[in-house]
Amino acid sequence: MSVRVCIEGRVQGVGFRYWLVREADRAGVTGWVRNRRDGSVEALFSGDETRVRKLITRCHEGPPVAYVTTVREAPADPPEISGFQSLPTAP
């Protein structure tokens, strides 16, 4: 299963990307995460459906100082990278 998620709220400047890299590594999910210029965080998760769903659920909570208001998801193609990486900010 591969899914792209957009996480909104107070999610930049609070360590969300670094937290998500650790969570994805623990879950055994591949993909990437990046900040967006609109203040949201975007991520692509790929792997076993149960593991991906668990990671999406964790995104609703985020790290301790984050405040998540919305998590939107859409089907996606699998990433062309191995592991889980933090990428540069996207437009």
Walkthrough of the structure:
With 91 residues, the chain is α+β, with helices and mostly antiparallel strands. It contains two helices and five strands; from the N terminus they run E-H-E-E-H-E-E. It has helices at residues 16-27, 49-59; strands at residues 2-10, 30-35, 41-46, 67-75, 84-86. Strands 4-1-3-2-5 form a five-stranded mixed β-sheet, covered by helices on one side. Helix 1 runs antiparallel to helix 2. The chain is globular.
Quick synopsis:
With 91 residues, the chain is an alpha+beta fold. It is built from two helices and five strands.
Quick one: how many beta strands? Answer: 5
The average pLDDT is 95
- Rg, nearest Å: 12 Å
User: How would you describe the shape?
Assistant: globular
Q: Tell me the series of helices and strands, N- to C-terminal.
A: EHEEHEE
Poorly predicted ranges: none
Largest sheet: 5 strands, mixed
The CATH architecture term is: 2-Layer Sandwich
Structural class: alpha+beta
Mind telling me the CATH class? Alpha Beta
Q: Roughly how many Å apart are the termini?
A: 25 Å
What is the overall number of helices? Answer: 2
- The strand order across the widest sheet is 4-1-3-2-5
CATH topology: Alpha-Beta Plaits
Helix content: 25-40%
Overall tally of structural domains: 1
Report the portion of residues in β strands: 35-45%
